[in-house]
Amino acid sequence: MTSLLPSSTSASPEPVLSGEFDLCEADLREFDGRDEEKPLLLSVGGFVFDISEGRKFYGKGMPYNIFAGRVATRALSIGSLDEEDLNDNIEGVNEKAVAGQIKFYGEKYKRVGLLKKEC
Ligand code: HEM
C-alpha cells in the first residue's frame, strides 16, 4: 500500500491543525453522524477534517454519509461510493486527484488532526 505522509504534500492550505483529533481509523468511526452531538469527521490524505458544517451531505441518512467517520482518500480521489475504496491506498490513483481532494477539504473545512497509523 502506498502511504501518504501529510508532511510530504504541498497541497495543504493554511495549517489549521489543532491536533484535537489525532485519531486512528478505528477511533474515527465514532464520528460518523450516528451521534448528532458529536462532530462529523473524515480523513483524507492523512489529515482529519471536521466536516460537521457539511451535515446536509455527510450526516445520518444523507447521501454522502458513507464518508463520515472514514478514511476516504481513495474513494474521494477516484469518485467512488464503494465501501471497498474507503482507505488510504492510492496505488494507481492520479496524484493530482489526491492533492485536489486535500485542497478541497482544507479550503472548505477545518483540519483538526492527523490520522494515526496505529490505534
Ligand atoms: C450522478 C452522480 C453525482 C451527482 C449528480 C452528484 C451531485 C452532487 C451535488 C449536487 C453535490 C452538492 C454540491 C453543493 O451543494 O455544494 C455533491 C456533493 C458531493 N459529492 Fe456528489 N454527485 C455525484 C456523484 C458523486 C460520487 C460518485 C462521489 C464520490 C466521491 C461524490 C462525492 C461528493 C461529495 C463528497 C460531496 C460533498 C462535498 C462537500 O463537502 O461539499 N459525488 N454531489
TrEMBL record:
Lineage: superkingdom: Eukaryota
Record Pfam families: Cyt-b5 (PF00173)
InterPro entries attached to this UniProt entry: Cyt_B5-like_heme/steroid-bd, Cyt_B5-like_heme/steroid_sf, MAPR/NEUFC/NENF-like
Family per similarity comment: Belongs to the cytochrome b5 family. MAPR subfamily.
Protein name: Cytochrome b5 heme-binding domain-containing protein
All copies of domain Cytochrome b5 heme-binding, residue ranges: 23-116
SMART domains found in the cross-reference section: Cyt-b5
